[in-house]
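Changelog entry: the Universal stress protein record was regenerated in this release. Current contents:
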Amino acid sequence: MKKVLIAIDYNPVSEKVAQKGYELAQNLNAEVCLLHVLDDVGFYGTQYPTFMGYDGYSGMGPDLDVAMEMKNIAEEFMNSAKKHLNDRQVKTHIAEGPTAKTILSYAEEWGASLLVMGTHSHSVLEKLFLGTVAEKILEKTEIPVYLVPVKDKAN
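Regenerated structure tokens:
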């Protein structure tokens, strides 16, 4: 295990995921990369015409300022996450696309030997209809996955 890819998102539990993944990588003397996926940035700034009587959108096409702002926020987030681990050797990467597919694609591209991610709590209906990113990755990956159990404090 020489390359540990740690997938994090904006959920506060990502701190635990990053820390546990980093500790494991240190024990393995492995290279670390923090990965954050922006799921189809174009959707963040899409402006739609009036539909179903709703006039909240005007014009067509993406608002490039919103999409760029989302990328800037992601960069700031990743810089903070790297700084939190206090290790200049940690790499970061921001990718765009469907979350599970994009994580798998980058893991392969980077040559990850281990993927670390958290298991968010989801409602039964959400799991039934949408599945989870972790489930989708486990179905498709050939790379070992280290799942960090994370639960909301309310659970």
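The chain has a mean pLDDT of 82.
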